[in-house]
Amino acid sequence: MSAARHGHSDIIRLLLRNGAPINAKGPQQATALRIAAEFGHLDATRVLVHSGALLDEKYDDGTTALFIAAENGHGDVVQLLVNEGADMNVQSHSGATALLMTAMYNRLEPLRILLDAGADVDLEDSCGWTVLTMAYFSDYPQLVHLILERQPALMRN
């Protein structure tokens, strides 16, 4: 887990070659993939993904590596995970999605990536918030503009 936290791709490769379980879980059920994604370590994330890490493995709160990468604004990691087939519409225990977190934390690049890849803009969290309502009420007009530009049908709702 420490190698993932610090982005030490070479150590991750060595550990995996010597039989380290790729999907082992640490505190809060975090996998090495989730930790590498959380800290924005693109190469470490790539090594883990290409070595067979489970893309949609859930953390104890129902979040995934994609969710946490989007929340933390790591667009390059988000792009990699989306390209590799991570489920963009996984909902946490509170119903939040990676897309919703980009709006909550003003993460423009991950928002753009997820919208362009077809993430579901209509999913609601447990409070009934969608990505558009979150961006609007969080006072992020640039995000609202991007969402409406990519999803013009939302203006009719």
TrEMBL record:
Spans of repeat ANK: 1-27, 28-60, 61-93, 94-126
PANTHER family for this protein: ANKYRIN REPEAT DOMAIN-CONTAINING PROTEIN 39 (PTHR24171:SF9), ANKYRIN REPEAT DOMAIN-CONTAINING PROTEIN 39-RELATED (PTHR24171)
Name this polypeptide is given: Uncharacterized protein
Keyword Repeat listed: yes
PROSITE patterns attached to this UniProt entry: ANK_REP_REGION, ANK_REPEAT
Superkingdom in the source lineage: Eukaryota
Keyword Repeat recorded: yes
UniProt source species: Phytophthora rubi
Keywords, sorted A to Z: ANK repeat, Repeat
